[in-house]
Amino acid sequence: MTKLPQNLFGENAGDLSVYNYDIKDIMNRSKVTIDQYVISFLIQGQKDIYDAGSAIHLDNTKALMIAQGNYLMTEKCYGSENYKSILIFFSKAKLTNLLLKKELISPPVKGPNPPTPYFTVEQDDFVKAFINSLSVHFKLHRALSQELLEVKFEEIMIYLLDRYKDTMRPFLLNTLQNDSDLSFKNTIEANKYTNLRTEELAFLCNMSLSTFKRHFIEVFGKTPGNWFKTKRLERSKQLLASGKTKPSELANSSGYKNLSHFSTAYKAQFGKSPSQVIED
C-alpha cells in the first residue's frame, strides 16, 4: 500500500511540498492512502481514482484536488511515454490558515451532499502557465525554496477560489469538517453495480476484511456476496425487460465470467434463463 506524501518525502514531508512525478511503470487500481490534501496537475497520461462513493477519470485537460482518505488509483501511460504530473501536498493546517487569512472560513456554507473528497478544475491558460512555471525549476534540476513554494501555493489557491467561487469554498470547508464522514451504507449503495472486490470495498471503508463482512451482515442482513449478486441480478432483470441490453452485456456488467454462469444464476433467481425471457 502506498502512503502519500510519506512514500515520496519520508516522514518529514512538512505542511507544504511539491513533487515532480515521472514514472514508466503502470499503476493498476493500487491502494493509496493520502494523509494530506494534494493537487494533481496531470501533464502526460491518464489517471483513474476510486473513492468510497464514486470514480473519476482524469487526463491532462484537468487538474484534481483530493482530500485525505483511502483511494484506489490507476495510472496509465500512452505508448512509450512516461506518466507525468506535478503534485502539491498541503496539510489541513496550511489550508485553514489560508482560508482564515482570506476571510473565507466563515460563515458556514453548505457543501455537496453526500460530501465528495475531490474537486476537478480545468487546465485553462492560467493553470497551464502555473504548471509551466513549476516545470522550469524541475527541468533545471533546481529545487523550489520554501518561500517561493509558499508564494506559488497561495497564487494557485487564490486563483482557483476566485474562478470557482461558488463551488470550491464549500468543497474545502466541507472536507475540513467531514473528512471521515462517509457512511458505510452510502459507500455500499454507490458501488453495488461496480466490479470492486469485497476486499477493495473493505479498504475504502477503512475496515479489515473480517470487520467489513461482520458489519455488512449487521447492516444489510446478508453476506456481501449474496447481497451484491441479488442487486445485480435484479438490475439485469429490469434491463432485460426493457429490450435494450443483450444477455452477454449484462453478464459482463454484473461481474460474471461468462454468459453461461450468468444464465445459471439468473435462472436460479427468477426461474427462467435470460434467453427464455427474451423468447417470451
From TrEMBL:
Ranges that cross the membrane: none
Span of domain HTH araC/xylS-type: 182-280
Keyword Transcription regulation attributed: yes
Single GO molecular function: sequence-specific DNA binding
InterPro entries: AraC_XylS_family_regulators, ExsA-like_N, Homeodomain-like_sf, HTH_AraC
Claim: Transcription regulation is one of the keywords in the record: yes
PROSITE patterns given in the database record: HTH_ARAC_FAMILY_2
SMART domains from the UniProt entry: HTH_ARAC (SM00342)
Keyword set, alphabetical order: DNA-binding, Transcription, Transcription regulation
PANTHER family in alphabetical order: HTH-TYPE TRANSCRIPTIONAL ACTIVATOR RHAS-RELATED (PTHR46796)
Protein name: AraC family transcriptional regulator
Organism: Mucilaginibacter terrenus
